[in-house]
Recover the amino acids of this structure.
């Protein structure tokens, strides 16, 4: 609750010349609506917003997604959007549809460390192809498999989407090397634990 | 033989793509065949930064050769934890065919003029693999950043590397001094030798590499109590 209050205070204090907003809150689906409502209530201040990064705010319900969509539709200058550890597959397509329709200057879309599944990518790819706007796409640390790999191949083919940078790390695009990938993930996790202990 | 369905789809897209400059595909579960397909599809690409770490590369590394030979944009290649130690190019060769493959692989780095950063850490390269990397440094003039950490290398491999770095710098300096009156030693910017079996030789390596490497990461001898040499970071 304190985190929500602190974040909403920050949002309330923002001026209409705000260019970058980073929110890292670790909010559950219960607390997230308060933050999103605060953002939605301050949309008139986001006219000049170029960069929005939101970390660990659970935007998984349809209601939360609607609130976020409302916010994003009022950020016409947005060039970079990061939603890290925020999303799940349901409703992502709708959000992307609204986002790519309204944020006409959006070039960098970072959707890392969500729980996105193949169906999200399958529904995103036609939107990305149509908008031809996104240059950098980060889909690392999701739950993508070979089907998403094929969909992304379609995105890259024929250069219709003009993607310059693509990060697909730490997904299971192929089963064949899964055991090897798992070893590295365990090693990384152990290493992080040891650093945490130190 | 594995079925690399994800890699097949991606490689089909990459084959005709001319826009991708940065491709980061760490830990995607790709096997040797899948990585091979991806590398084939990137052979005539404009990729500037390629990271295939923590997939199974093995002998598919040989298929880097066309990309290295044709690319004028590839500047950063990250192949950490991809079992390069299993690749014939990084092992002692037993047949003429293997020796030819190894030569072609090394020469591909020699033909390349854009690669600046090479990360081959955590590959169990051993001394044989270190020898290959030393040969790569011997024929390539653009690599300035090299991560060789975690490769089970001992004094023999490290000395081969150190000699290659020193000779390369000397050769570069003499060639630039012949064309310019004000010559300065062009150092390797970064060399990471940590997590190898080099503890007993860190001072010797330090003495050889300090003049030719700007940032050297190496584990110190347990009894070493000296001060940190300017520009050389001891860990």
């Amino acid at each position: 609750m304190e985190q929500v209050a602190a974040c909403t205070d920050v949002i309330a204090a923002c001026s209409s010349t705000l260019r970058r907003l980073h929110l890292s809150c670790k909010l559950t689906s219960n607390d997230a609506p308060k933050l999103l409502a605060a953002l939605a209530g301050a949309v008139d201040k986001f006219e000049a917003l170029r960069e929005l990064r939101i970390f660990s705010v659970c935007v998984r319900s349809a209601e939360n997604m609607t609130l976020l969509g409302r916010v994003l539709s009022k950020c016409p200058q947005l060039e970079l959007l990061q939603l890290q550890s925020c999303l799940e597959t349901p409703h992502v397509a709708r959000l992307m549809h609204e986002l790519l329709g309204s944020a006409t200057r959006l070039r960098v879309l970072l959707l890392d460390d969500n729980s996105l599944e193949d169906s999200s990518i399958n529904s995103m790819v036609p939107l990305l192809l149509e908008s031809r706007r996104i240059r950098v796409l980060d889909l690392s640390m999701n739950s993508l498999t070979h089907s998403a790999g094929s969909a992304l191949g379609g995105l890259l083919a024929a250069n219709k989407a003009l993607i310059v940078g693509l990060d697909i790390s730490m997904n299971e695009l192929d089963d064949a090397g899964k055991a090897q990938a798992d070893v590295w993930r365990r090693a990384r996790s152990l290493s992080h634990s040891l650093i945490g202990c130190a | 033989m594995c079925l690399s369905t994800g890699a097949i789809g991606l490689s089909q897209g990459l084959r005709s793509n001319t826009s991708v400059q940065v491709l980061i595909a760490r830990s995607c579960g790709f096997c040797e065949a899948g990585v091979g397909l991806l590398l084939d599809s990137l052979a005539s690409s404009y990729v500037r930064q390629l990271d295939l770490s923590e997939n199974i590369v093995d002998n598919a590394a040989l298929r880097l050769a066309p990309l290295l030979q044709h690319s004028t944009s590839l500047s950063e290649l990250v192949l950490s934890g991809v079992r390069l130690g299993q690749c014939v190019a990084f092992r002692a060769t037993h047949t003429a065919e293997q020796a030819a493959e190894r030569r072609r692989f090394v020469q591909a780095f020699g033909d390349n003029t854009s690669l600046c950063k090479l990360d081959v850490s955590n590959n169990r390269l051993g001394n044989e693999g270190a020898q290959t990397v030393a040969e790569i440094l011997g024929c390539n003039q653009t690599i300035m950043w090299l991560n060789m950490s975690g490769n089970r290398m001992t004094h023999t491999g490290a000395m081969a590397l150190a000699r290659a770095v020193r000779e390369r710098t000397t050769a570069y300096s003499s060639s630039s001094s012949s064309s310019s009156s004000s010559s300065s030693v062009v150092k390797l910017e970064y060399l990471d030798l940590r997590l190898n079996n080099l503890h007993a030789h860190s001072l010797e390596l330090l003495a050889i590499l300090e003049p030719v490497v700007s940032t050297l990461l190496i584990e110190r001898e347990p009894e070493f109590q000296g001060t940190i040499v300017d520009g050389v970071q001891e860990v």
Summary: Helices of chain A lie at 2-13, 32-41, 62-73, 92-102, 118-131, 146-156, 178-197.
